[in-house]
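B., you asked whether I could sanity-check this one before it goes into the benchmark set. Here's the sequence:
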Amino acid sequence: MLQSVEYGADYLQNRIDREIMLAKPMGVVVEAADETALILRAPLAPNANHKGTAFGGSLYSLAVLTGWAWITRFLASRGLDADAVIQESKMRFLAPVHGEMRACIEIPAEPDIDKFQRMLVRADRGRIRLLVNIHQGPRLAAVFDGLFAAAMRR
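And here's what the prediction gave me:
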């Protein structure tokens, strides 16, 4: 396996800035990216709604981007030449966000990761469910549950 530092926060920030045009205006920053954690954050100001809290669309976008970032990093770190997209999702908004948004992925269980990788290698496509929690400070503000699909490039 390749060194995870090669696919750390700097690598992921560059990928996001280059491939996801919405991320820069949102102010998305990769706080952490390794085998144990993936955290993205974004300031309130460019993501505020008319009530002065985080816009639901920004919270959703940050959650999807966090899932995409995890799967993109996973694929790259294992030398898998594949593209990933969101296939389906649901999100629960639990509390208003009055400050910086911080999205943390729940790293999937090893059996789920192994199944995803086996399907991708065997069938050129695979799916994996990813959970993302968005916090403002210590408070849980939103919970995202998304099914991501990946397909090998030809």
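One thing to flag: The first helix runs from residue 9 to 19. Otherwise nothing jumped out at me.
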